[in-house]
Amino acid sequence: MTALLETKGLMAFYGDFQALFGVDITVSQGETIAIIGANGAGKTTLMRAISGVLASQPGAILCRGEPIGALAAPDVLAHGVAMIPEGRRLFPSLTVEENLLIGAYGRKLGGTWTLESIYELFPILRERRGYPATALSGGQQQMVAIGRALMSNPDVLLCDEISLGLAPVVVRDIYAAFPRIRASGASIVIVEQDIGQALKVASRVYCMMEGRITLSGRSNELSRDQIHAAYFGADRHELH
Amino acid sequence: MSFIDTLVQGVLLGGLYALFAAGLSLVFGIMRLVNLAHGDLIVLAAFLLLVLVTGLGLDPFLAALLAAPLMFGAGWVLQYVLLNRTLGKDVLPPLLVTFGLSIIIQNALLEGFSADSRRISTGALETASVGLGPVTIGFMPLMAFLSAVAVIVCLNLLIYRTAIGRAFRATSDDAVTAGLMGIRPQRIFAMATGLAMVVVTIAALYLGTRANFDPTAGPARLIYAFEAVIIGGLGSLWGTLAGGVILGVAQTLGAAVNPEWQILAGHLAFLAVLLIKPRGLFPRAVD
């Protein structure tokens, strides 16, 4: 069966600096996977490459078997791959509702997510709809960022460090929305530094270090020691 | 001339300056591009109108309707093919390229139309006016002012009430993240410059019917446009109208004291606003 999204030997560069060294991941229809790793492991670079923000080799990223590695971000979105960028990156001159609406700019026809269903998912946003998006609390801003990405009715939702800088209780509230997102049929790729959170929501986990995948497997089959070793680098070669 | 009449004439003149400036303000607001050829593009549009009026015998207003989509297309192509390549972290390339474009336009117009001064005739409308007590309002200056208000209302509606307007603002905030929303910043910028060229065409209609123009008239128009934009606050369209009016009133007041002081008085008003409010009267909250 063809994977919904996969990377094959993906390499990425910032100028002369190589940030990814042959990364292979696979995401199946309706699956939630997590990519964990310490700061500088290459997780965000991987997200940027998949979403088309960072150029990569054409055949190194496939969506339903079609090469999308050389496509620009709007074309990647047209293939149904949407990203919630690290740091939320809301548009400060747009209101909450306008930020959500702009998410539908490149939307596919059909799909379950509308302004109304986003407000049902995060009711507080309905109350704050006319506020400038950046005037909201960090957690509410993250809800806007998630809602904005969902407005394109994606097949794959890339979530880059959505818990970063948020209080644990807020993170819990945000992750509480994920079963509903999964139920819409979207596959989810979560990039997290919080290993516990990642293992809780994802069925499979990839661990990255220094631009490489150092460990992969089903969340319920990986031991704490294995993850610890892959995350921090001990016995890296044995784990391959 | 009474003081009130002088003020009214200044406000009406300000409408023309706001028209000069609105396109500049739009382009700067969306892509932070300072187009040094803006004044020359107004003069180019005025010559296009002149050709349509004298060559085809069209009414100037009808000619402007015909020229507007042509100028939109020219602006779209100019931005997409040339100016988009200059945008980036370095502010120098767009300045250099638009400065070069300014020289090219001036010389091309000199070659094509000679250095003679021209004027677009509107027939009886040129002298039509309404007398309101001590104030006499010319039809064409009034039309210029009303057109400026209409242009700014329309641009504001477009920017704040439509999907393309949201895309303009989102791209202005963060072009990379806008790309993640399916927005193609290069096309949004081209659309913005196309729209600015439509405004340029309207400005050219009133420039050409109000006063003489020649191929080298662009840079002075650019200065007035700049001053109106900066007085009003960068990126604010209503501020641009206010800037145009302040400039126009200052010039007519200066001219009322001594005709030689007209231009100087406008520049002094500009400097005074800069001293008191360096970011202009109505700067955008987010820059």
Write the layout of secondary structure elements.
The complex is a heterodimer of chains A (240) and B (287).
Chain A: E1 5-14, E2 17-27, E3 32-36, H1 43-51, E4 61-63, E5 66-67, H2 73-78, E6 81-84, H3 96-102, H4 115-121, H5 123-127, H6 138-150, E7 156-160, H7 168-175, H8 178-183, E8 187-192, H9 195-201, E9 204-209, E10 212-218, H10 224-232, H11 236-239
Parallel strand pairs in A: 3-8, 3-9, 6-7, 7-8
Antiparallel strand pairs in A: 1-2, 1-4, 4-5, 9-10
Helix pairs in contact in A: 3-6
Chain B: H1 3-31, H2 38-56, H3 60-82, H4 92-113, E1 129-132, E2 135-138, H5 139-161, H6 163-173, H7 175-180, H8 185-210, H9 218-232, H10 237-257, H11 262-276
Antiparallel strand pairs in B: 1-2
Helix pairs in contact in B: 1-5, 1-8, 1-9, 1-10, 2-3, 2-4, 2-8, 2-9, 3-8, 5-6, 5-8, 6-8, 9-10, 9-11, 10-11
Structure commentary:
- The complex is a heterodimer of chains A (240) and B (287).
- Chain A has a single domain, classed as Rossmann fold.
- Chain A has 11 helices and 10 strands.
- Chain A has helices at 43-51, 73-78, 96-102, 115-121, 123-127, 138-150, 168-175, 178-183, 195-201, 224-232, 236-239; strands spanning 5-14, 17-27, 32-36, 61-63, 66-67, 81-84, 156-160, 187-192, 204-209, 212-218.
- Chain A has a 6-stranded mixed beta sheet with strand order 6-7-8-3-9-10, sandwiched between helices. In chain A, strands 2-1-4-5 form a 4-stranded antiparallel beta sheet, covered by helices on one side.
- In chain A, strand 9 (204-209) and strand 10 (212-218) form a beta hairpin.
- In chain A, helix 3 (96-102) packs parallel to helix 6 (138-150).
- Chain B has 11 helices and 2 strands, in the order H-H-H-H-E-E-H-H-H-H-H-H-H.
- Chain B has helices spanning 3-31, 38-56, 60-82, 92-113, 139-161, 163-173, 175-180, 185-210, 218-232, 237-257, 262-276; strands at residues 129-132, 135-138.
- In chain B, strands 1-2 form a two-stranded antiparallel sheet.
- Chain B is globular.
- The mean pLDDT of chain B is 94.
